Amino acid sequence: MGDSQYSFSLTTFSPSGKLVQIEHALMAVGSGQTSLGIKAANGVVIATEKKLPSILVDETSVQKIQLMTTNIGVVYSGMGPDSRVLVRKSRKQAQQYYRLYKEPIPVTQLVRETAAVMQEFTQSGGVRPFGVSLLVAGYDDNGPQLFQVDPSGSYFSWKASAMGKNVSNAKTFLEKRYTDDMELDDAVHTAILTLKEGYFL
Amino acid sequence: MSRGTGAGYDRHITIFSPEGRLYQVEYAFKAVKASGITSIGVRGKDSVCVVTQKKVPDKLLDQTSVTHLFPITKYLGLLATGMTADARSLVQQARNEAAEFRFKWGYEMPVDVFAKWIADKSQVYTQHAYMRPLGIVAMILGIDEEKGPQLFKCDPAGHFFGHKATSAGLKEQEAINFLEKKMKNDPAFSYEETVQTAISALQSVLQEDFKATEIEVGVVRKEDPVFRVLSTEEIDEHLTAISERD
Fold first, then answer.
1. Beta carbons of B123 and A81 less than 8 Å apart
2. What is the pTM of this model?
3. A49, A201 contact by CB (below 8 A)
4. ipTM metric
């Protein structure tokens, strides 16, 4: 892909063994609007701030939380345009899976493939890593699931997680409030409270 | 971590800076302002109007060839603020894309789908090192079959939003402040009010009264969803109406 003049990776190791472009990408995520997710006993909730730059913006034209399939949704923190690319690729992958297996794609599989795309962009020639972290929420045969995928392409399953600005306060708040047997309504309520916590800071 | 990048190319190509910023994208925004032009778009109840300055730097230039307002299809218009050459390149690709969409799917490309296409293209330039971001902010206008009049703005970073009113270029912030006051109570402007709000916003922000040859105006109306560039006579009528009103 791209010009052959750029067939070398822009993300290379520093002398201390770090991939600094990925660290910088995480900084971009950390300055994005807060988003969070909570896994309840009977469902998953994801939420995010939707602060628009001006009252002139038509807020119905903006949708930060998007569907990847009918039972898998995603929210991001970081660079909106980058998240659109990932959503588009994931939707296609989900449909390809369905075409092959005649079954809706399990959440873990879709997360794995999305993460693989993100990893590709940390190694391929002439591209930079994605400046977003994704929270993928889905419900399949294994019950409710919540995954966080980072710019490096690593992903973990979470009971509750937050990303973006004010993440440490949000996570502390979630740790205090989270219980394994939470119902979905409680989880939604907690999610909103957590977002409100960060609003005045 | 302080000398992390090593090569220090973060200002030359679109890779991350240590703070997680993309300098090339930020510089692209500056290039839009450097063109010295300001543009304004306003969405009314059943029409959309965009207005931009028409600066002809040399009297020997053929004025009719100086334009920032491009019809993409019969129903979609694009106002490009910034580097003219980048604008023409985008317009060429956009016209092709809109025509292919019509051919492939059998109906006109909707405004938001078109805006998304432009924004996604801009995003690619922010992620692949071999192409720089385009130095333009694009305002798209059209009438959507279901949602009515639509005005979208796409920027070099790949963001796009629908707007009730917006601005781009040199005096962008001043214009947005002006428009926020005007649109605060969600007014439903008629066609004449829409055009006059857009033109008077530009006049107020640049603090000069225009002649009809110094601005370009493009409109779409629900009752006639074709994208039209207003003629000098029509612009004159509106300018007269504004000065009589004040």
1. yes
2. 0.88
3. no
4. 0.82
